[in-house]
Design a protein that fits this description.
This protein has 13 helices and twelve strands. By secondary structure, the chain is of the alpha/beta class. The structure holds nicotinamide-adenine-dinucleotide and 2'deoxy-thymidine-5'-diphospho-alpha-D-glucose (DAU). InterPro entries: dTDP_Gluc_deHydtase (IPR005888), NAD(P)-bd_dom (IPR016040), NAD(P)-bd_dom_sf (IPR036291), Sc_DH/Rdtase_CS (IPR020904).
Amino acid sequence: MTLLVTGGAGFIGSNFVLDWLAQHDEAVVNLDKLTYAGNPENLATLQGDGRHVFVRGDIGDYGLVLDLLKQYQIRAVVNFAAESHVDRSIHGPEDFIQTNVLGSFRLLEAIRAYWGGLDEAGKSGFRLLHVSTDEVYGSLEKIDPPFAETNQYQPNSPYSASKAASDHLVRAYHHTYGLPVLTTNCSNNYGPYHFPEKLIPLCIQNALAGKPLPIYGDGQQIRDWLYVKDHCSAIRRVLAAGKVGEVYNVGGWNEKANLDVVNVLCAILDELQARADGKSYAEQITYVTDRPGHDRRYAIDAGKLERELGWKPAESFETGIRKTVEWYLANQDWVQNVMSGEYQSWLDKNYAERQA
Ligand code: NAD
Ligand code: DAU
């Protein structure tokens, strides 16, 4: 029995692969294109571990995916592979259409061809778990209830629109062809191996480097934060016991305004690695031009996953964020290695034009 994990060298995918192999002996074939966001170093501890096979490739490569499915007799696919950064989708949406829409389509086609050739037991036991986002539901007002699985899709960014398209394709392949799919829609993750283009790792790095901590707009946008290891445990639970064709929302019950998140980071850094001048890192907070079309609030109702499958997050925001800051302080080599030339040119593109 073998799992095919796509995008398993990225932030959530690599946490998933590491946790999976720490808990199971079931092998993992890890298919990742290694874009700027994919980093084999995340998987360094698996070197020499025969249960992990890394393949550099594209989910949009039908022939490659079909070969892997057949060669390793895959019994489930967990699809993390995607372009994932909203700001990048605003600057250049095309990669998002290529991977999140066309890539997902070709992945589905390869899986359909493979699954169609399995015997009845293989067919009914097979699963495709598609990892998606709460952003497909659009933006909430302060008084709105959190997103339920029944909410209408109202994606607002090229990123969320491309993820919504992939969710619709996955749903359609179940309804039309009977493909045994599961979809999870998760809120904002944070934790180890988070690429430092996203709010939390970016602010940790900028704080330590004495740079501005850029807050888009008024900083009162709300996100629902989930420690990445909790997302991984939710995916394992849905894969093991989720009802075929169903959608499960995953969240941390942790709604926080961006400014509050950054202030918490600064307070932990003040305690663990105080600034040489004795001032707080919060002094580096700088308001910058807002993200175009910025969604005001996301919040997830994860009640279905708790009621039906008994899943709850293990970490509170307070415990998870402290672990995260500690991880970044202890893994500065990892951060320096991912802050390559490409990363520097992204910072120039995204922040140079934002007025302080
Ligand atoms: P990430 O950007 O850190 O990693 C994405 C990985 O996919 C990278 O390793 C990259 O190399 C790989 N990849 C990109 N295009 C590929 C392609 N065409 N073929 C094969 N591999 C490809 O993303 P992440 O934050 O780990 O997110 C993983 C998944 O979870 C995404 O589908 C994302 O939409 C979803 N998600 C993310 C969050 C979050 O807060 N980060 C929350 C909810 C859902
Ligand atoms: O909600 C789930 C989504 O969470 C995932 O689907 C995405 O893949 C993931 O990137 C994340 O999207 P966000 O846009 O919410 O994450 P990001 O870290 O980019 O931004 C978090 C909030 O912080 C958002 O309101 C924008 C704001 N922000 C972000 C950056 C990078 C800033 O204020 N300043 C910044 O420099």
